[in-house]
Amino acid sequence: MNKVILMGRLTRDPEIRYSSGENQLTIARYTLAVDRRFKRQNDDQTADFISCVVFGRGAEFAENYLHQGTKIVVSGRIQTGSYTNREGQKVYTTEVVVEEQEFAESKAAAANNNGGGYQQAAAPSRPEPVQAAGDGFMNIPDAIEEELPFN
Q: What CATH number does the domain containing 11 carry?
């Protein structure tokens, strides 16, 4: 099985290309900075920089909505390859072919974390759940029952 799930921030805006031919396909490439869970002794690097590529509608989504600093979650597969560069040396590549991608934080949180870029929208007012007295369950306010997926 070849499955990878990553959460990180884009290091720069996605690079967008279009395939040539009859059925033009959008291709987006970006790099995710993924924080390491633990810091090794004598190691200054606290993140890994993972190359990602996404095709078709996912690439169109990346082109329209993803920007430098955006925190996203991606799932896909690792793909390796190689090519010979101009100097005649063989270069090996590793990248994640993205199958799914989604935002990992709200626009308001992104604006607070990366110093702007988004206008902070007013959050809709929602009643907070209240702890029940001892049975271990939370009381769900009547105002949000319509939003629950299991009514």
A: 2.40.50.140
Let me know how long the chain is. 151
CB 77 within 8 A of CB 98: no
Please check whether residue 93 lies inside any domain of the structure: yes
User: Does residue 144 sit within a domain?
Assistant: no
Residue 58 · residue 28 · CB < 8 Å: yes
- Summarised one tens digit per residue, pLDDT across range 29-39 is 999 999 988 77
In a domain, 30, yes or no: yes
Summarised one tens digit per residue, pLDDT across range 12-24 is 999 999 998 888 9
126 phi, psi to nearest 5 deg: -140, 130
Residue 108 carries which DSSP code? H
Of the pLDDT bands very low, low, confident and very high (cuts 50, 70, 90), residue 9 is very high
Distance CA 47, CA 7 (A): 11
Question: H/E element holding 111?
Answer: helix 107-113
pTM for the model stands at: 0.69
CA distance 1 to 44: 32
- Dist. CA 73–CA 67, nearest whole Å: 14
Q: Which of 65, 72, 69 is nearest to 100 (CA)?
A: 72
